[in-house]
């Protein structure tokens, strides 16, 4: 599986150093959580953080937009250096337009679903995305417990992918550690985001190796 450390749990006063640490440890993506205080009850990073880190890292930037009306932000995050832009199904009545805008900006489109959204709601969109992100916690905070009841969605997405011949990656985000990642992998997930498991440890590289070993 690809590993995408989430900088939400990094030491923000030493963000550049913490990004280098996971880059050198073999991380595949860098997961950047963008929160607007409306769609989720928290604030995090803006375009300036993406732009500054872009100058320092060759990792694929996986930008998870937890903002209302993500259409207003797609071009700005694309210009700042995002490689993959994730938009929540629940964040806009015009999700198809948002996904199209990501492609028009030359980036990979990711569709994200909250725990309360079923796969049935997004089947008409699956041919239009490079990545689907199944939230395995309620979005907004790091360090929450994994919701095992989300596993069936990963299985459903993996089945549809095989049946229809789609190539989307299946990403999981929230409460991922060296135990829960195994369940996700078995269900068909191909990318795992991990924040607190990686960064709430004095040696993030050891944590990444543990995840990669699964
Ligand atoms: O999108 C989010 C939270 O809303 C995540 O990307 C978190 O950053 C994951 O943190 P952990 O659950 O791995 O600590
Ligand atoms: Fe995230």
From TrEMBL:
Cofactor binding mode and count: Binds 1 divalent metal cation per subunit.
Binding site residues for a divalent metal cation: 31, 33, 64, 173
Record-linked Pfam families: Ribul_P_3_epim (PF00834)
Reactions performed catalytically: D-ribulose 5-phosphate = D-xylulose 5-phosphate
UniProt GO MF annotations: D-ribulose-phosphate 3-epimerase activity; metal ion binding
PROSITE patterns: RIBUL_P_3_EPIMER_1 (PS01085), RIBUL_P_3_EPIMER_2 (PS01086)
Required co-factors: Co(2+); a divalent metal cation; Fe(2+); Mn(2+)
CDD domains: RPE
Protein name per its UniProtKB record: Ribulose-phosphate 3-epimerase
């Amino acid at each position: 599986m690809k590993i995408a450390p989430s900088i939400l749990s990094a030491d923000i006063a030493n963000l550049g150093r913490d990004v280098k640490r996971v880059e050198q440890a073999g991380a595949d993506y860098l997961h950047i959580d963008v929160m607007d205080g409306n769609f989720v009850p928290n604030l995090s990073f803006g375009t300036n953080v993406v732009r500054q880190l872009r100058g320092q890292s060759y990792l694929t930037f996986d930008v998870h937009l937890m903002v209302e009306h993500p259409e207003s932000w797609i071009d700005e995050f694309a210009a700042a250096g995002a490689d993959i832009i994730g938009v929540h199904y629940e964040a806009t009545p015009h999700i198809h337009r948002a996904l199209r805008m990501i492609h028009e900006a030359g980036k990979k489109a990711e569709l994200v679903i909250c725990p309360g959204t079923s796969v049935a709601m997004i089947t008409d969109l699956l041919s239009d995305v490079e990545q689907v992100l199944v939230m395995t916690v309620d979005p907004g905070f790091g360090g929450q417990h994994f919701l095992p009841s989300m596993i069936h969605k990963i299985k459903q997405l993996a089945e549809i992918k095989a049946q229809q011949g789609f190539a989307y990656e299946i990403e999981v985000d929230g409460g991922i550690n060296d135990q829960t990642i195994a369940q996700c992998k078995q269900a068909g997930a191909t990318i795992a985001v991990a924040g607190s498991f990686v960064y709430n440890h004095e040696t993030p590289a050891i944590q990444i190796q543990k995840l990669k070993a699964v």
